[in-house]
Amino acid sequence: MGSKPGKQGFSVEVPATASVADLKSAIALKKKHLYPSRQRLSLVSESSKRLTDETKLTDISNGLLKDGLEFKLKDLGPQISWTTVFLVEYAGPLLIHPLFFYCPKLWYGKNFEHSALQKYVFAFVMLHFLKRELETLFVHRFSHATMPWFNIVKNSGHYHILSGVLLAFDIYRPKYSATSPYILNTIRNDEQFLWICTGIWLYAELSNLHTHLKVRSLRPPGSTKRAIPYGYGFNLVSLPNYFFEIIAWTTISVMTNSAAAWLFTIVATGQMALWAIKKHKNYKKEFGKEYPRARKAMIPFLL
């Protein structure tokens, strides 16, 4: 069967039983730089609708394959895997925070005893990003295998600078040390307060993990299929993982009242809100009347 990608001046031959993924592979053989993940295919008649790799060409044409199909081909540019991007961006804080925590003289000009608050926050940050790395390797199943390569610069900047350098520099400085007036005889040095914060943070992190595992269970390996999630967290919002992450970072911000911690929490909340609203709209569009209408996008009853 002849398939012609848009008005690119070439055609490729694929079997009548081929899928969009097969067509992309055939295009890649003819145009070496256009490897499959770099391609976006849509019908010329429906140029705004992206065709998924699993789509069969016979389904597109309703079984009528006479003179071939005409597609619009868009070059998405150099790509990099989602897994690589996530591993690199989360690795930043895992490397940066120990440098500030264990080498205070290098950054602040002197050694000092860390307070219990600093030790708790250090543990929280390290465990959070270690969890994110493990989820990337063993939990997440991505709808798309790759993203534009520049995203690794943009995403890494967010994590390496805001939750890496700025957060570490601010929280591990002498102001928060064991002998600082900001800590001594205050709630920040109260063991009960620290344990309460630990309980809230741990609840948020475990709840976040639970939602990731729930979404994973709805997507078979090697598939981009989506289903409506129900149960804990999902009864109120479409993206409870974002909500629980906000709770975790807000806990750290309240514990320290650090300007850097609040900055990261606010920026991260804004970014997650944009993602949540977009994904919430996609859920409603994809599942229509089946999707629970009372759900909010990210924050119960509000957003």
Any overview of this molecule?
InterPro entries: 3-oxo-5_a-steroid_4-DH_C, SRD5A/TECR, Ubiquitin-like_dom, Ubiquitin-like_domsf. One of its GO terms (molecular function) is oxidoreductase activity, acting on the CH-CH group of donors. The protein is α+β, with helices and mostly antiparallel strands. It has 2 domains: 2-77, Roll (Ubiquitin-like (UB roll)), CATH 3.10.20.90; 80-290, no CATH class. Helix content is 52%, strand content 8%. The protein is built from 9 helices and 6 strands; from the N terminus they run ββαβαββαααβαααα. The chain has a 4-stranded mixed sheet with strand order 2-1-4-3, covered by helices on one side. A two-stranded antiparallel ribbon has the order 5-6. A hairpin with a 6-residue loop joins β1 (2-5) and β2. The longest helix is centred in the last third of the chain and has 29 residues, at 259-287. The protein is elongated and about 80 Å long. The N and C termini lie far apart (49 Å).
Distance between the termini: 49 Å
Shape descriptor reads: elongated
- Find the structural class using helix and strand composition: alpha+beta
Which percent bin holds the helix content?
A: 40-55%
Strand order within the widest beta sheet: 2-1-4-3
Number of strands: 6
Largest sheet: 4 strands, mixed
Please, how many domains?
2
Order of helices and strands: EEHEHEEHHHEHHHH
Question: Mean pLDDT across all residues, rounded?
Answer: 88
Strand content: 5-15%
Total helical segments: 9
Radius of gyration (Å): 24 Å
Subcellular location: Endoplasmic reticulum membrane
Pfam families: Steroid_dh
Keywords: Lipid biosynthesis, Lipid metabolism, Membrane, NADP, Oxidoreductase, Transmembrane, Transmembrane helix
Family: Belongs to the steroid 5-alpha reductase family.
